[in-house]
Amino acid sequence: MKPIQVGLLGIGTVGSGTFNVLKRNQEEIKRRAGRSIEITMVADLDVARAQSLVGPGVQVVNDARAVIANPEIDIVIELIGGYGIAKALVMEAIAAGKHVVTANKALLAVHGTEIFAAASAKGVMVAFEAAVAGGIPIIKALREGLTANSIQWIAGIINGTTNFILSEMRDKGLDFDVVLKEAQRLGYAEADPTFDIEGVDAAHKVTLMSAIAFGIPVQFDKAYVEGITKLGAADIKYAEQLGYRIKLLGITKRTAQGIELRVHPSLVPTKRLIANVEGAMNAVVVQGDAVGTTLYYGKGAGSEPTASAVIADLVDITRLHTADPHHRVPHLAFQPDAMSDLAVLPMSEVVTSYYLRLRVADEAGVLAKVTGLLADAGISIDAVLQREADEIGGEGSTQTDVIILTHDTREGTLDGVLAQMQALPSVLAPITRIRKEELN
Fold first, then answer.
1. Cα(15)–Cα(205) distance, rounded to whole angstroms?
2. What is the pLDDT of residue 327?
3. Cα dist. 245→180, 253, 273 in Å?
4. CA atoms within 13 Å, Cβ hemisphere of 71
């Protein structure tokens, strides 16, 4: 049978990994797919470099549209990234009747609804396993492996850069700024790490998982996004003393009121497996009504781990290339005419529990005033930890830290109480609030 011919747009870290793994495991992949899969054309602005990576026998051009226009190309892999030219090229490839494989989580989280609709209308597939959690096959698990389940919630460490930073802060007792510089020096963080450290990258990924889990459109604009830049070494230390670790989690949850879609630092009990995921590794916990809790762990980035996911998509498309489009797995797991219009909740309506740290004057009655405000709002307290003043500012210090763990409450209710607390003369610094996720 004639090989499936693939055009590759962009041969950077993931592109070169894809080419190398596909070439190295060619025979094994052919046995699984039923026919050969060959990258026969590559587009990259640096033609000489690209040609040196792929060798003779592969056509290299500097114009991505030449790949899309080639009638011999069956599948286009988009590895350019971003929202701009990548979107135009993906839409043009679909219009030309090409299947598309992409690792571009930003593009799909923002424009996925439009892209998937265009692909469905044209009868082609858009596969994106590599867009979420690198080499971990979480998209396939959600779309196919867990299809019998009503998914209840997903919580994931889905950004390796931030997990590396938080692990280093905990291990070495260092503040965020110091560890970020080290992460950049080691290559774990980009020169401009904004998308990672502000939680945007994780929000792109959890937006896609949420759509697949609950059969809703991709709605990145409705996600709550908070990064790790304001976390201090003190909070990581206090969390540890209370039996928790702080992780940047992407969380999506089905509730009676609607869908939660949020990214933020969270205290997770140290006894949970996901709390012990360290360094640049990723992990995703999925709770289904039939299967219970499942955990997916592995490398969330890197040349060959991500290439593993790209090639898995190539194999899926090759198997289904000649199938009736109506018999393929839907892009977002649910049939396009059966998508739900469940609302995504604003953060003020989310119910969870909290860690609060208050820097206060070391004087009588302060704790009573603070806990009284919580009681008046109907917020119950799980635990209180008060540090000795000399631990905070040395001998003779007149201020101390009070740490409070709350039970579940509505975020909007807590917002009101925090404003009242902050106004107390005895509260000497901005209050730190970190959400707490038991992940039962």
1. 20
2. 80
3. 19, 21, 11
4. 0
Residue 128 is predicted with a pLDDT of: 97
- The 3-state DSSP composition of the chain as helix, strand, coil percent (nearest 5) reads 45, 25, 35
* DSSP states of 201-248: HHHHHHHHHHHHHHT----GGG-EE--STT--HHHHHHHHHTTEEEEE
Three-state secondary structure readout of 411-432: HHHHHHHHHHHHCCCCECCCCE
Ramachandran category for residue 55: left, alpha or beta (phi over 0 → left; psi -120 to 50 → alpha):
left
Residue 34 gets which letter from DSSP?
Answer: S
Using 50, 70 and 90 to split pLDDT, how confident is the model at 390? low
Which residues face 381 on adjacent strands?
A: 406
State yes or no: pLDDT of 393 exceeds 80: no
Question: What single string gives the DSSP state of each residue in 142-186?
Answer: IIIITTTS-EEEEEEE--HHHHHHHHHHHHH---HHHHHHHHHHH
- Record the tokens describing residue 414, joined without a space: 């807590």
For the chain, domains (ranges, CATH) are 4-135+303-335 (3.40.50.720), 138-299 (3.30.360.10), 351-436 (3.30.70.260)
Where residue 365 falls (left for φ over 0; alpha for ψ -120 to 50; beta otherwise) is: left
- How is residue 240 written in tokens? 């540890």
The H or E element that residue 107 is part of is helix 105-122
| Among 49, 70, 283, 28, CA closest to 159 | 283
User: Residue 286 above 90 pLDDT?
Assistant: yes
Q: How many CB atoms lie within 10 A of CB 242?
A: 17
Q: How many CB atoms lie within 10 A of CB 333?
A: 19
With CA atoms as reference, report the closest residue to 261 among 230, 215, 221.
Answer: 221
Question: pLDDT tens digit string along 94-122?
Answer: 999 999 999 999 999 999 999 999 999 99
pTM: 0.95
Mean pLDDT (whole number) for 217-228: 97
Give catalytic residue positions.
Answer: 205
